[in-house]
């Protein structure tokens, strides 16, 4: 039992862990985004691929062992609610790698198909 890496303050098992195990679908685009961030933290490549839209999904996903994801800030959401079919989530993810610390500032696009939220793509702010 531990705090969820997505920073919700909830226990991992009751937060992103419930989505990773398939016990619950993500109710919102933000919830899916948080669970995908946590998927990177716990290196659950299968979950990341399963929540990626088939149109944009890579064949395989190689997670970089040198990158440690440290913290997530959700900056803004646009739509992506339980009654929407699409949504945007802007976030800043902090990481550390051997060369130093960095941030990924991205606005991700999500769609909901057959009741499931899927990651489509994202625009990275340089
Ligand atoms: Zn979480």
UniProtKB/TrEMBL annotation:
Question: InterPro entries given for it?
Answer: NTF2-like_dom_sf, SEC_C_motif, YchJ-like, YchJ-like_M
- Note the coiled coil stretches, chain numbering: none
In this chain the YchJ-like middle NTF2-like domain maps to 28-122
Task: List, alphabetically, the PANTHER family matched.
Answer: ADENYLATE CYCLASE-ASSOCIATED CAP C-TERMINAL DOMAIN-CONTAINING PROTEIN (PTHR33747:SF1), UPF0225 PROTEIN SCO1677 (PTHR33747)
Question: What family, per the record?
Answer: Belongs to the UPF0225 family.
Give the protein name, as stated in the record: UPF0225 protein Cch01nite_20500
């Amino acid at each position: 039992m531990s705090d969820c890496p997505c920073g919700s303050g909830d226990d991992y098992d009751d937060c992103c862990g419930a989505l990773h195990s398939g016990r619950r679908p993500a109710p919102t685009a933000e919830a899916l985004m948080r669970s995908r961030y946590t998927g990177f933290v716990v290196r659950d490549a299968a979950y990341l691929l399963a929540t990626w839209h088939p149109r944009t999904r890579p064949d395989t996903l190689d997670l970089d062992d040198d990158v440690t994801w440290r913290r997530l800030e959700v900056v803004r959401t646009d739509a992506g609610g339980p009654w929407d079919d699409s949504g945007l989530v802007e976030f800043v993810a902090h990481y550390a790698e051997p060369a130093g610390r960095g941030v990924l500032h991205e606005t991700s696009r999500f769609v909901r198909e057959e009741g499931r939220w899927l990651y489509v793509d994202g625009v990275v702010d340089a």
